[in-house]
Write a structure and sequence with these properties.
mainly beta, five-stranded antiparallel sheet
């Protein structure tokens, strides 16, 4: 009986612990939902503290500490697509087929001026590559490439039983080398211009890509065709779109702050992951030691209480965690347009307050 009572007490204590953990975890989630601000598609970001009454007496010190230890973070997992971009250079190049393209430079715009290749009815019915390069991409150096889509504006002069044009090869160009999986399709080209897409937002064409590969002037796409009978292939343009994701941006009050002495005016704040540097635009941001549960924090006061971290943050999500003290003023939370200096989060000019 004594053993049973001891076992029962231990079991009861275990269930109390489980309930305690679940209860406090639910409060922690609530705190995050109430205290965090999510903003999509911002381009010029400033950070500040806003005012709002809120208390969580049941939060443990460790949870409060964890909540404010991550002072602010911007997660960059939203997909971003650049393009479609058009090539600055079009060329007919060897490597496949026998017959070169005429006017290859015409593929640089969607304007119905077309590169052409005429294929006779004999065994030499394959074209050379029609290659486009120098697409003027400027993908951020710390992005991760997710996929590449090629769109070809194309048509044939005929599409009869014995005279048709088909894809032979559709590939990408990396550093001036035609590479990757062949994305040619098996359907014949029609006699009206069609925008045919190859690849997509999650298709890397069987190889790996870095931002420098994409930004290289020798990045591009190449198309070759073949004919059954006498036929002419015509290509208006070869455009490319690139989908990528940015890494998370993480600013912490206990690291990367300069200077980091108590009550000092902060001049810069360096991201912990990828070295974005935020600068104080108004000089009214100070470093406070032991500010929140023995952890440091940044204090924002007066006007121009903001940080600016740059402009390359489209399609991002901002998570802002602040100590909140009053319900009387939320007007400084958002800002947009030129000339607004006392806004914590300054959005791009096309987003209103």
């Amino acid at each position: 009986m004594r053993f049973f009572l001891k076992y029962f007490k231990q079991l009861f204590s275990f269930f109390k612990l489980v309930i305690f953990i679940i209860f406090h975890f639910s409060i922690f989630i609530k705190a995050i939902l109430i205290n965090c601000l999510f903003v999509n598609n911002f381009s010029n970001v400033k950070f500040f503290s806003y005012k709002h009454n809120f208390s969580l007496p049941l939060l443990t010190k460790s949870i409060i500490s964890a909540l404010f230890f991550l002072f602010i973070s911007a997660t960059g997992f939203a997909q971003i697509t650049d393009g479609p971009n058009f090539p600055d250079v079009g060329a007919s190049v060897s490597g496949v087929g026998y017959i070169s393209w005429s006017n290859p430079s015409y593929i640089g715009a969607d304007d119905y001026s077309r590169a052409t290749v005429s294929l006779p009815s004999n065994n030499r019915t394959q074209s050379n590559y029609l290659r486009g390069t120098d697409y003027d991409f400027n993908i951020p150096v710390n992005a991760t490439i997710l996929g590449i889509q090629v769109t070809v504006g194309r048509k044939a002069n005929v599409n009869s039983n014995n005279n048709k044009i088909y894809d032979l090869e559709v590939k990408l160009v990396k550093n001036n080398v035609i590479t990757g999986l062949n994305h040619a399709v098996t359907t014949a080209w029609i006699t009206t211009e069609l925008s045919s897409t190859y690849g997509g937002a999650s298709d890397l064409w069987g190889t790996t890509w870095t931002p420098s590969d994409i930004n290289n002037i020798y990045f591009g796409a190449a198309v070759a065709v073949y004919a059954t009978g006498n036929a002419t292939a015509q290509v208006d343009y070869i455009s490319i779109s690139v989908t990528y994701v940015m890494p998370p941006v993480w600013f912490k009050a206990d690291a990367g702050v300069t200077p980091s002495t108590n009550n000092a005016t902060v001049t810069s704040w360096v991201d912990r992951n990828y070295s974005y540097t935020a600068t104080s635009s108004g000089g009214n941001v100070t470093y406070q030691t032991n500010a929140i549960n023995f952890n440091p924090a940044l204090s924002f006061s007066n006007v121009d209480r903001s940080f600016v971290i740059g402009t390359n943050f489209s399609a991002r999500t901002l998570i802002l965690v602040n100590k909140i003290t009053s319900t009387t003023d939320l007007s400084g939370l958002f800002g947009s347009g030129a000339g607004i200096t006392d806004k914590g989060i300054r959005l791009s000019n096309d987003i209103s307050d």
